């Protein structure tokens, strides 16, 4: 019984670690970030804050929020999510968002998900 409990705890710990959000680069404070208006910056920051959750639904909602942000920085975040998120559904949603935004990296993300 102890062995079963230890295995379950180990599996639970591995499961929790496997579904982490992708690391996103910090928003730059100069250059392109200065060109963002305040509303776009707030949208990016809100989506990024929501994305840091371990809950799949929150991360899906964050991807939806990033999809409507009119900035190349949102494309970079969507690409990172499509490549590295722990939930396959979130990765797929980010790849779909890149395709809808006609990003040139969308086919590569879709191919990696298919493999």
Distance linking N and C termini: 38 Å
How many runs of DSSP E, i.e. beta strands?
0
Q: What fraction of residues sit in β-strands?
A: under 5%
Supply the number of helical segments.
Answer: 7
What's the pLDDT, averaged over the residues?
A: 80
Main sheet summary: none
Question: Which descriptor suits the 3D outline?
Answer: globular
Helix content: over 70%
Q: Provide the succession of SSEs.
A: HHHHHHH
Instruction: Give unreliable regions as ranges.
Output: none
What's the alpha carbon Rg, rounded to whole Å? 16 Å
Structural class: mainly alpha
Which key phrases capture this entry?
single chain, 115 residues, mainly alpha
Question: How would you describe what is shown here?
Answer:
This protein is mostly helical. Helices cover 71% and strands 0% of the residues. It is built from 7 helices and no strands. The model has no long low-confidence stretch (mean pLDDT 80).
Helices and strands, with pairings:
Blueprint: H1 2-18, H2 32-35, H3 38-51, H4 56-67, H5 72-84, H6 88-100, H7 106-114
Helix pairs in contact: 3-4, 4-6, 5-6, 6-7
Describe, in short, the structure shown:
With 115 residues, this protein is mostly helical. It has helices at 2-18, 32-35, 38-51, 56-67, 72-84, 88-100, 106-114. Helices cover 71% and strands 0% of the residues.
């Amino acid at each position: 019984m102890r062995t079963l409990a230890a295995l379950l705890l180990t599996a639970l710990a591995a499961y929790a670690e496997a579904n982490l959000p992708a690391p996103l680069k910090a928003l730059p404070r100069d250059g392109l970030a200065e060109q963002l208006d305040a509303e776009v910056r707030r949208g990016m920051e809100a989506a990024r804050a929501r994305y840091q959750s371990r809950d799949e639904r929150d991360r899906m909602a964050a991807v939806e929020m990033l999809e409507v942000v009119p900035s190349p920085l949102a494309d970079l975040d969507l690409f990172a999510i499509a490549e590295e998120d722990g939930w396959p559904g979130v990765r797929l949603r980010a790849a779909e968002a890149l395709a809808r935004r006609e990003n040139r990296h969308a086919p590569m993300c879709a191919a990696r998900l298919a493999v």
